[in-house]
Design goal:
Largest sheet: 7 strands, mixed
CATH class of the largest domain: Alpha Beta
Helix content: 25-40%
CATH superfamily of the largest domain: Medium-chain alcohol dehydrogenases, catalytic domain
Shape: globular
Oligomer: single chain
CATH topology of the largest domain: Quinone Oxidoreductase, Chain A, domain 1
Length: 326
């Protein structure tokens, strides 16, 4: 049988492929498929990155389960994962300041394919140079958590030196960066966590720690300028009473009640992290100067993404879970 023109062209110029983890339908960890897919190509203003490591976040399994379809409008099949560290492979037109071989890290826009892959294409405004103080594994653990903390505390709540901040889930992926950033800014930092994590929080810079298993945090603290809620539910509800008049309730898991804010004379906001290479560059400088540290609890190969997400769903990780992309 004579080959068609398109078949001849494909034989001469084979499509470049890569390994990636994708979901074809929403569901449990079993819907994550490690498979061969076409390698993306950078367009104008875009960068092709060879991923060396990808951070694992609660958003990843929430997307897999279909919980955040409105926040993450990504059609299926899709590659999850929204933070990475890697090396620039190629650049599209109109990209300045980045070139092949540069080591970078960042988090892509939520409307494009994710980082659970050997390659990813992102806008040049979504990446910056990787901190020289970190390897790719530890760099991949930084972007989403650190940017979420930065945007919540500084850009939204306006945390200043001398203010008091209460951080719920202070030993987690967002909380651990929030403690360090708040302390760097000069705030008095209170962190809630299980007793086993209190020494860790003190190492991060917390001035006061509260074991949420042992005592209601609202019995131990009051007059707080900012509450950073990474837990939601009853924890958020009980937090209103610790805020001072005019204080700020900022949550990264559930939008605080406007009625409660009015009743307590407080401000409120829900933060869904946005890519920002400028802020990430400032965070990288803090990492290089030793002001911020990256903590990785577990490293797994990309093909074990389902195990990584199951671990993330336990809500007991100290620091981050990272996928190694060989």
């Amino acid at each position: 049988m004579q080959a068609t023109r398109s078949e001849e062209l494909r034989a001469r110029c084979p499509v470049k492929t890569m390994n990636a983890v994708r979901i074809h339908e929403y569901g449990g960890p079993e819907v994550l498929r490690y498979e061969e897919v076409s390698r993306p190509k950078p367009g104008p203003g875009e960068v092709l990155i060879r991923v060396r490591a990808a951070g694992v976040n609660p958003l990843d399994w929430k997307f897999r389960n279909g919980y955040v379809k409105d926040l993450v409008p990504l059609p299926l099949p899709a590659i999850p994962g929204w933070e990475f560290s890697g090396v620039v492979e190629a650049t599209g037109d109109f990209v300045d300041g980045l070139r092949p071989g540069d080591e970078v890290f960042g988090n892509p826009d939520f409307g494009r394919g994710g980082a659970y892959a050997e390659y990813i294409v992102v806008q040049d405004s979504e990446v910056t140079f990787k901190p020289k103080a970190l390897d790719h594994i530890h760099a991949a653990a930084v972007p989403m958590g650190a940017l979420t903390a930065w945007q919540s505390l500084f850009e939204v709540a306006g945390l200043c030196a001398g203010q008091k901040v209460l951080i719920h889930g202070a030993a987690g992926g967002v909380g651990s960066f929030a403690v360090q950033l708040a302390k760097w800014r000069g705030a008095y930092v209170i962190g809630t966590a299980s007793q086993s994590n209190h020494h860790f929080l003190v190492e991060l810079g917390a001035d006061q720690t509260i074991d949420y298993h042992a005592i209601p945090f609202e019995d131990k603290v009051g007059g707080v300028d900012v509450v950073l809620d990474t837990v939601g539910g009853h924890t958020q509800q009980r937090s209103w009473k610790v805020l001072k008049p005019g204080g700020f309730m900022v949550s990264v898991v559930a939008s605080p009640s406007a009625g409660e804010a009015l009743a307590h004379g407080a401000q409120k906001a829900f933060v869904f992290v946005q890519p920002n290479a400028v802020a990430l560059h400032e965070i990288a400088k803090l990492v290089n100067s030793g002001k911020i540290r990256s903590f990785v609890q577990t490293v797994l190969p990309l093909c074990h993404a389902s195990v990584a997400q199951e671990l993330s769903q336990t809500h007991h990780a100290r620091g981050k879970i990272v996928l190694r992309v060989d």
